[in-house]
Design brief:
With 213 residues, this protein is of the alpha+beta class. The chain contains 4 helices and 11 strands, in the order H-H-E-E-E-E-E-E-E-H-E-E-E-E-H. The chain is 29% helix and 24% strand.
Length: 213
Amino acid sequence: MEVISHVALMSSLISMTAMKCNPIFAAVSVLVMTLESTLGQGTVNFQNTGPFMIEADRLLRDSVGNPLVGTNYLAQLYYGPTGSLESQLISVEGAPRMFRVPTTILPGTWVAAVRTLEGFTSLQTASLQVRVWDIAAGATWEQAVMSGFGNMQYGVSQIFPYTVPHPQDTTQFRGQMENFRGFSLVPEPSILGFAVVGAFGLWLCGRRSPQRP
């Protein structure tokens, strides 16, 4: 072990000397280290257009089953450690992604982006979830929740696992959300609907209340 340590120290000293003597070598070395660091971060292709290794339905649909279109709809990615509950997931850095215009040839998909999963590195597995809502209800998912979704459509995917790819993975499937599956939005119950349910509940409680003598 002591010999190995000495060899490693000598190698480091030689590299440092070479970098001092050769500015080009130093610049290339810094670039390589930077690329290795970047590739080792937990990045993911936040998109549902492919290509994917496994064929599956990854489209988003509105409440009546049509592929979702309209730039008023937003998609955001949430993540956390394996086994996280939905309430424990946090949003990635970066603005939500818009869905496409009604005339698109890719209905049911949002505009792609690369996102970083802070705290996750190569070959680590995270839990992901996609959340979709109408921007009229809020600029973020949290704002939309606070507004009651503004009587607009919204929805969330099932929580699914994602493994950060190895830096040397150069396949076309690198960073894809293979385990993501499409889902349909649901309409927010109307105020009238809440009123009807509330009135029925009060009526039911009144019928069950014992009569006073």
